[in-house]
From TrEMBL:
<keyword id="KW-0687">Ribonucleoprotein</keyword>
<dbReference type="InterPro" id="IPR037121">
    <property type="entry name" value="Ribosomal_bL25_C"/>
</dbReference>
<dbReference type="InterPro" id="IPR029751">
    <property type="entry name" value="Ribosomal_L25_dom"/>
</dbReference>
<dbReference type="Pfam" id="PF01386">
    <property type="entry name" value="Ribosomal_L25p"/>
</dbReference>
<keyword id="KW-0699">rRNA-binding</keyword>
<dbReference type="Pfam" id="PF14693">
    <property type="entry name" value="Ribosomal_TL5_C"/>
</dbReference>
<protein>
    <recommendedName>
        <fullName>Large ribosomal subunit protein bL25</fullName>
    </recommendedName>
</protein>
<dbReference type="GO" id="GO:0008097">
    <property type="term" value="F:5S rRNA binding"/>
</dbReference>
<dbReference type="InterPro" id="IPR020057">
    <property type="entry name" value="Ribosomal_bL25_b-dom"/>
</dbReference>
<keyword id="KW-0689">Ribosomal protein</keyword>
<dbReference type="InterPro" id="IPR020056">
    <property type="entry name" value="Rbsml_bL25/Gln-tRNA_synth_N"/>
</dbReference>
<comment type="function">
    <text>This is one of the proteins that binds to the 5S RNA in the ribosome where it forms part of the central protuberance.</text>
</comment>
<comment type="similarity">
    <text>Belongs to the bacterial ribosomal protein bL25 family. CTC subfamily.</text>
</comment>
<keyword id="KW-0694">RNA-binding</keyword>
<feature type="domain" description="Large ribosomal subunit protein bL25 L25">
    <location>
        <begin position="8"/>
        <end position="95"/>
    </location>
</feature>
<dbReference type="GO" id="GO:0006412">
    <property type="term" value="P:translation"/>
</dbReference>
<dbReference type="GO" id="GO:0003735">
    <property type="term" value="F:structural constituent of ribosome"/>
</dbReference>
Length: 201
């Protein structure tokens, strides 16, 4: 399941806008917004170092947090954040209100296991089509990752979402087709595909 929940202290913002945001950042704070659950959005500020540490710890977008604001505790899921392109500095964070019954859509990373028990051991290449899969799941039970078992796979095999065992209550957002997550290709084909991708880029 997702990483352990954590708590953030926040202060309500009375002023919004670029000037106010710049002032906050100079004082070691980041502007943020809490929205959703059919309630009015709340503009807040949170500690820069604390939120940056959480972002870089991993699992930020799939972990429910608790924001303490004016003595109240609000359960939230990070939905977006902006970084300064030059300084890798956190500029803004959006939080979605959630409850025990909330259903959310999140991008969950894909982990591959047992490469040594597949054709990859003899030189084949794992061609990853999706490093993440968007899933519908309970906010209280977000998977930290989904695992794809490569054991026994040969050159030419493809792994589709239907082959992945998802936790109870978790379904893919893309429901109209059995999409591909990865394929096992011969070494030459893998190199050719990479070269084609580089050329297109």
């Amino acid at each position: 399941m997702s990483h352990a929940s954590y708590e953030l202290k926040a202060v309500a913002r009375e002023r919004v806008g670029k000037g106010s945001s710049r002032e906050l950042r100079r004082n070691g704070l980041i502007p943020a917004v809490i929205y959703g659950d059919k309630q009015a959005p709340i503009a807040i500020s949170i500690n820069t170092n604390e939120i940056t540490k959480r972002i870089h710890a991993g699992g930020f977008m799939t972990t429910v947090a608790t924001i303490e604001l004016d003595g109240k505790k609000i359960s939230v899921l990070p939905k977006d954040y902006q970084l300064d392109r030059v300084r890798d500095f956190t500029m803004h964070v959006d939080f979605l209100r959630v409850s025990a019954n909330s259903q959310v859509s999140v991008q969950v990373p894909v982990h591959f296991v047992n490469e040594e028990k597949s054709a990859i051991k003899t030189g084949a290449v794992l061609n990853i089509v999706r490093h993440e899969v968007e899933l519908h799941c309970p906010a209280s039970d977000i998977p930290e990752a989904i695992t794809v078992d490569l054991a026994g796979l040969k050159v030419g095999d493809a792994i589709h979402i239907s082959a992945v065992k998802l936790p109870k209550g978790v379904t893919p957002v893309i429901a109209d087709r059995d999409f591909t997550i990865a394929t096992i290709v011969a070494p030459a084909a893998g190199v050719a595909e990479e070269e084609e991708g580089s050329a297109e880029a």
